[in-house]
Amino acid sequence: MTRPITAGVDGTEESLAALAWAGREAVRRGLPLRVVQAWTFETHDAFDLGDRDTQRDRVRDRLSTTARALAERHPELTVTADAVEDGAVDALLAAAADAETLVLGSRGKGPLVGFLVGSVGQQVIAQTARPVVLVRAGDEPAAEAAGREIVVGQHGAPEDSAETLRFAFETAAARGAAVRAVRAWTLPPVFAYSPGSLKLLDEAGGLEPYEKKALADALQPWRERFPDVPVVEHVELGSAGQVLLSTADRAQLLVVGRRARRTAVGARIGSVAYGVLHHAGCPVAVVPHA
């Protein structure tokens, strides 16, 4: 089954930027595009908003107009549009389950850190098993020009970031772009050393060479699978979030992995993905670990 690129829209400027991004990506990958808008029946004491059928038709008409405009911009693209009567989180989670990638809008950077992605986006990212791309209002196709990289974070063993690297290399191959693979490392506390880890570090020649080898090992299968994709290996001392953000100015897309954790108040994304989503100026792809 061919999975579509799916864009969630709600008529806002940022969701329309996400739709435009999704359309370009679907064309590049030769995939269909699905446009989804969630809606719920509303009543108001002071205004007549119409019955359920009237409200449904109004949403469908607006959505059809939006989808038609995109199809006219990309005649080669197959576009479908669905108005789903459900809460936004549930509708987007259902749409993501059948999608190659879900694309959502995200508000621009500002002083109210913690409110930029929005609760709907954060809940969807934390719960879905599919990649989610967040696009800010004002995102321009020029940012995808040649010379700008796909920046991807790598950590742990090769299997820990396999899905994240897969997404980055597939995106780079479709765009004719280079991949900058970033591995951040920090000095561990003395008590974290064990005889086994010390032996590995000695064999690698020290901490930084060990980290470089770990990155090279993780990249090897993807280099072989995508031999035409240029790769820059970037190993830097520092926190993962800070190192990734320091490279974002040269990125057309920043790709990070996430392992959602459950808390008493629901699923939460990791601190690295959270920080990148709130501070990166380019679109960000969050890819769940397998």
TrEMBL record:
Stretches assigned to the UspA domain: 1-136, 150-288
Pfam families: Usp
Parts forming coiled coils: none
Domain of life where this protein originates: Bacteria
Family: Belongs to the universal stress protein A family.
Full protein name: Universal stress protein
Species whose genome carries this gene: Streptomyces similanensis
Highest classification ranks of the organism: Bacteria, Bacillati, Actinomycetota, Actinomycetes, Kitasatosporales
